[in-house]
Amino acid sequence: MLTAGDLRAGYRAFFESKDHVFRPSASLVPRADNRSTLLTTAGMQPLMPFFLGREQPPAPLLTTVQKCFRTPDIDDVGLDGSHLTFFEMLGNFSFGQYFKDGAIELAWEFVFDHLKIDPNRFWVTVFEGDATLGLGEDEAALRKWQEIGQPAERIVLLPATENFWSVGGPGPCGPDTEMYYDWGPEHGCGEADCRPACPRCERFLEFWNLVFMEYELHGDGTVTPLPKQNVDTGMGIERTAAILQGVMTVYETDVYQAIMAWIAGESGVAYGDSPEATKAHRILADHGRGMTFLAADGVTPSNEGRGYVMRRIVRRAVQQAQRIGLEPPYLARLSDVVIEQMGEGYPELGQHRTEIHRILSAEEERFGQTLARGLRLFDEVAARGGDIAGEDAFRLHDTFGFPLELTQELARERGLGVNDEEFTRLMEEQRERSRAAISRDDQQAVEFAHAAGFKAEFVGYEKRDVLTQLGAMERLDERLFLAKLRESPFYPAGGGQVTDAGWIELDGDPSTRAELRDAYRLEDDQVLLFEGDGFGDGDRVRAVVPWRVRYPTTANHTATHLLHKALQDVLGDHVRQAGSAVRPDKLRFDFTHGAQLTSDERAEIERRVNEKVFENLPVRAFVTTIDEARNLGAMMLFGEKYGTEVRVVEIPGYSRELCGGTHVRSTAEIGPFVILSESSVGAGARRIEAITAGEAYAYLHGGLRAAEELRGELERARKQTQKPRARAAADFTIVDSDGSVVLVETKALKGGDLRDLSDRVRQQEKAIGVIVGSVDDGRAYLVVNLDESLVGRGLDASKLVRELGRHIGGGGGGRPTLGEAGGKNPDGLRDALAAGKQAIADALR
């Protein structure tokens, strides 16, 4: 029996023997300049720049084994034997070389000489023509099939809806010819006209499609010949494996049976034991493959975009696993089955096994904690009868992490509907509350970039201030416009580093200025969004990234490299970067580690980073091949996509990483390095926030001043130990308390007395946050007193008290755990307390 692995290897070997160059599978995450789809959905999709003529293919003949993921079928997976999310597509491609005759000859040879498919069960379909397009039937393909030996009675002419391919709009297109396998009349509808694409039955299985790209479709619906005739083919591994193994559904092939055998062994429930068991096995097998490959390509569960797709399939799998009694944790072990089965064809699976385990285990644990409670709520709601209200569906989503699709699926099983319109309205209201003020149209930026006809050259590694040309621009409204510079110093967000701030001004007229609002990274190109007026195509401009923005950003970025290595040296080689955010004001570094850092570990990590700073080591960057970078032992960040040439940032003798960001010239430029907080961001992952350079100096200097003030207070306290402090026992009123945060009002207290009261209330109420307000002699005073755990969640008492000070007409400051403010508006005290409570509540979510 030919396995799926045999098919994968045999296809590659066959087409390599026919002078096709093998191109490894592209990531499931499309290129940055492809904003048309969340995930790679077809074998030819990564090759679209070659078909569109935007890039030269690496060879005129290519062959691939491409991993693909389709999202529309998620809810149908498990209900039948054919729907899938993850699948593999075999393909052979010709760019201006062979065309219809060559493609059909190669397909014929592979199908019959290598796959040994029964010729009597082999059917083909051909484009019958389309009057709207002004095209007749594909005589060339029809003639070639007949010449090569395909019986005329098993060649079917079909309309454009079946046998004409396009990108879904203007662009390359052409007729196609498709190959079908006939399962036999006993599986058909019994009608005399039963043939491929029959809408009444599943007797015929399409398994290979040859697309002949010979036209360009225009916006007015007309087609014109392309300068080159290209061939794009796609053979589904799962469907072809079903044919070769003589089984009617893809789930009965070896692709899925190995996974299902593991599921049965772990749960004691076999595939086919019951309709519920069959559904659960199919979902776990398909989603298990999908989530493993998505995780290997750096996709992590979230509530947006690709992350939401990942979250949906993980949570759907967890819900089905519970139904058949799988004992958690199981997703990491399920992924191991997939890795062992498919790792030879996709080496990235084994390379990223640890990260795959971490991602899946964290989401399984997160959802598993709330699944049982969410199901109880759903049962209560369903027991009322009638459709599930949108408000209930929203609560299941917001509180228990149920995607709407999971609620809909549970409702369908009980014959109920869901008010998805109300759910959508509530979700949109929630998004509106957190949506950024300026939105951006990624697709418009991509189209603008291609229409410009040139690539912007990024010169920001060497320059912050450059005279260049505004090579193209497009107005979005009176003030906003898209732009491409011939040479750009602006770094567009990527690799964890945020987009630069800066501006352009007319050469010779500095008063005509536009501020950079956003930047779009498009592989090795960029589009910039500016706000301003007075500019036009072709203008000479001065483009500037201020030193105050670029320098601290580069210091923080180089510090993340030092931190990464220090973490590995102190905690172990298992530590890997799991995300980062490099900004001018601070850095955030997520890493894989299962336990909270001890105070000794934290101090040692901080000491090692500063030690390398003080050694004034050079920081070098160079471009080399990906293979040479591996040989040099350069760290490659999980989830990043690398080309054949990569940029290496090296601190000789200490750190070497692949990185496209901006860096200082020597470690001494980083200045002092200070860890602000260390906290959990999920199972098996931790987060460090730190500061460098001027921010670190200000922080340390502020701490020194606070220490001096504390020493002064202690000295004054010692002198007055024998004196009664009548005001320390002042009356106060707790105006609000939820057990975690306490709001207090008092009178005639300020300064040290008010701080003492905040300490006393925190201890008395066992609170993690206390905000005390006081009125004394016509002025208002505030103290914000926070536990270290709140600082770890991103709160800073000094910053918070400054914000609250606006309500009382004043300002304030302090340190991360204790801040004070004063102002001349006592009437705003209650508003300040309420705003403070809300800020702490937001941090606790």
Q: What would you report as the Rg, rounded to the nearest angstrom?
A: 32 Å
| Percent range for β-strand residues | 15-25%
- The count of helical stretches stands at 24
State the total count of DSSP E strands. 30
Gap between N and C termini: 54 Å
CA-based shape: globular
- Computed structural class: alpha+beta
Low-confidence sequence ranges: 433-440, 722-729
What average pLDDT do the residues reach? 89
Largest sheet: 9 strands, mixed
Helix content estimate: 25-40%
Q: Could you please describe the fold and organization of this structure?
A:
- It is a single chain.
- With 845 residues, the protein is α+β, with helices and mostly antiparallel strands.
- 38% of the residues lie in helices and 25% in strands.
- It contains 24 helices and 30 strands.
- Strands 1, 2, 3, 4, 5, 6, 7, 8 and 9 form a nine-stranded mixed beta sheet that branches. Strands 11-12-16-15-14-17 form a six-stranded antiparallel beta barrel. A six-stranded mixed beta sheet has the order 25-26-27-28-30-29, sandwiched between helices.
- Helix 23 (797-805) packs antiparallel against helix 24.
- The chain starts with a helix and ends with a helix.
- The model is unreliable at 433-440 and 722-729 (pLDDT under 50).
What is the element layout, followed by pairings?
Blueprint: H1 4-17, E1 21-23, H2 48-51, E2 61-69, E3 86-95, H3 100-114, E4 122-127, H4 139-148, E5 155-158, H5 160-163, E6 164-166, E7 171-182, E8 204-217, E9 223-236, H6 237-245, H7 254-267, H8 275-296, H9 305-323, H10 331-342, H11 348-351, H12 353-383, H13 390-400, H14 404-413, H15 420-434, H16 442-452, E10 457-458, E11 465-475, E12 480-485, E13 487-488, E14 503-506, E15 509-522, E16 525-531, E17 540-544, H17 547-571, E18 577-582, E19 587-592, H18 599-614, E20 620-625, H19 626-631, E21 645-651, E22 655-658, E23 674-680, E24 685-691, H20 693-719, E25 732-737, E26 741-747, H21 751-765, E27 769-776, E28 779-786, H22 788-792, H23 797-805, E29 810-815, E30 818-823, H24 829-844
Helix pairs in contact: 3-4, 7-8, 7-10, 8-9, 8-10, 8-12, 9-12, 10-12, 12-13, 13-15, 17-18, 23-24
